Structures are given as structure tokens and as C-alpha cells.
Amino acid sequence: MQQIRASVADEFEAVNRLIVEQLHSDVDMVENVGHYIVDAGGKRLRPLLALLCGAALGGCTERHIAFAAIIEFIHTATLLHDDVVDISTLRRGRPTANAEFGNAPSVLVGDFLYTRAFQLMVTLEDMDILRHMADTTNTIAEGEVLQLVRAGNPDTTEADYLEVITRKTAILFAAACYGAAALSGQPEQERQRLADYGLNLGIAFQMIDDVLDYEGDPATMGKNVGDDLTEGKVTLPLIHVMENGTQEERTLVREAIASKSAGRLADVVAAVQRCGSCDFTREQARRYHDQALGCLQGIPSGPAREALLAITALSIQRDH
What we know:
The protein is built from 17 helices and two strands.
């Protein structure tokens, strides 16, 4: 990641400074919770995409830096809310904000970050971006509700799964790229091409996340293996077992999903491995990876384009 950030290192640091500056509040709890989750780090992949797209299309401006901070605030707000809904206890190698401070502060500080993002957005004075980001955050919220409604439902299809991950994850990747292109003065066709790049990248990224939930190393990932099963999330590896496993394996997975229990996690992981379900999911992720690469054709050569290619490769070649 350090090499990928190199072409926009100064801008990336400027984003980090702006995030810290914009976390300021007269309410101590807001700053405490906000800093707790932001200081935990993470890849900052979404704001990095905004910076790299801006750099590839002529150079990053102060508006790109502000937009990248906006993207990170929205993402962080969704993490705070997700961890409360999912009753998660570990993220990025340490207790989640809700485990550390409680559910109510996490939800309310998540609201603060959402509204701070839109305050920053107004300073861009660009109605097209404001409209696009309003639609994006609304879609993310719908995706979260869809995931909640479908949790514990073993009849969830691959199409249902794709709808959820597109809405709740990939759409913000797409928005980061679209907004950067808009701020670079690109026509709608070019904006949409980069949005398609982000969307396909985001889908590939989420699919690998779902693989890692069954074969990842908790110490490396910074979160617990099997969390998806405990939350009743029906991800592609499980769907593949239910479509291709033995009757015993299908029943095992269906019952684990319906009961939202990781009590038989070891057996479920074994079934996923026997059915080649993680390999299947990786193959599907590569399809979206390849589509994302296709969207980068025509982007001017240079360090920023090379970094975008590296991020695309990283989406399917990572262990956390």
C-alpha cells in the first residue's frame, strides 16, 4: 500500500490532516469515538481511489483532497453503524467502537460523521456531486437494510448476494471514482467509465473479504473468522455449498445460516473447502477484477495509472 500511495503521498497526508481537523467537536464524546475509529488506520482505499483518479486525470486539487475526506467519513460512518447492527467486537485488530464505548455513542457519532461529510460536500459547491453522493449514501443505507432483512435466510440466491454487496460496498468505490472524474472536469461518459471501474473493483474486493471470513487468519485480518456466519450473512462461499454440496453439507450450511450460529463453524469451513467454494468465489472475483481492468483502458500512462492497476491486482491478491 505504501508503494501504491507514493504517487499521491503528499495529497494522502493532506487528507489525513483534514480528517483530523474535521473531527473537531465541542462534544468530547464525538471526538473520542471519532478519533478511536479513524486512528485505527485501515487501508483508506476509497479516498485513495479518489486521489489516484484525480492524479491520473490531470492532477489532484484541494477539492479532490476534500472529496477524499468526504468518502472516508462516509465509509467510517457505515463501519460504526455496521458494527452495532452486527454486534461485532473486533475490527482492525482491536475492539470495535461499540465494544469500547457502547452502542449509542457509536450510532450517534456515525451520524455525526455522515453529517460532517455533507457539510464538507457543500464547500465543493458542485450540485452534481452533491446529488450523486446523496443518491450513493441512500443506496448504501438500502443495501444495509437488505442485508439485515436477508440475514438468516438460506434461500438467498447469488443474484440477491450481488445486489447487497453492490449496494452496500461497491457503490462507494464507484462514487469515489465518479466524483474524482467530475472534479477533474471530465465528461459524463468518462465519469461513468471510472464509476464502472470502481463498482467492479468493489465487488471483487467484497468477494475476497467473504472468502477470508472462512480461510483468513484473524491476526492478519484484525477481525474474527466466522463473523459472517454468526450474523447469518449469506455470502457466495455458502451459496456455492448449498448449490453444489452433498445433502448433508447443504443441510449443515442451511441450519447454520438459519440459526445465525458459528457453533459448527469448523464443520462449515470443512464443507466450504471440500466443495471448492472459496476457489469458486475467487474465480468470480477475478471476473470483476478483469472488468475493472478493462475500464482503465484510455487512462493516461503514468504513476497514478500504475497505482490503479496495482490496487486492482491487490483486490484479489490479499490476505486482509
